[in-house]
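pasting for the record
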Amino acid sequence: MDKKFLVKVVELFIDNGAKTLTMDDIAKAFGMSKKTLYQKYANKEALLEDVLAFKLEEAIVKLKELDVQVENAVERMFCRDEHIERAVQSNNSLLIRQLIKYYPAIFNKHMMDFAEKFSEVMVHNIERGRQQGYYREDFNATIYAKLFFQLAMSYDSSPFLDTSIIDRTEYNNEAFMFYMNAITTEKGKEQLKKYNNLK
């Protein structure tokens, strides 16, 4: 299916949830027969996988665009991308909650794909920062990238966080600065000082 179709289906799933929205609902929203929809997608699970892959690719493209626009590796990390921010904050949305409950295999595959592609972007940033002298050489870039992803995505699922006391934004900012302080050299920490007030 084309991009326009997927954009609208994403909205339908976000508004209604992964379980609640039916193939009948989707066919009606597009004024097509259910038969036509089933010719494109054998079942709702296949459609969900396509929708999640589409949204993930959209977010990764935006991240890579920022990589091109911002040369300084530390500065790049402070250019918060709205797609990733939304992805992190929508972790507790109706769509995600229903995916976890009713389609755990699809959700887990999506999160593995998300972690993999996001980690690639982070590793690229680490390599650039090392070339610029801002990031340390003595750590495993792939593991640190995955650690950061895990930290960023854990607010809603960690058994150790009382989210009635710890605000999501504060948690995300502290997790981010924890990561940045862990990877930067003294030269990199000088760069960090410029952003301390933005925390």
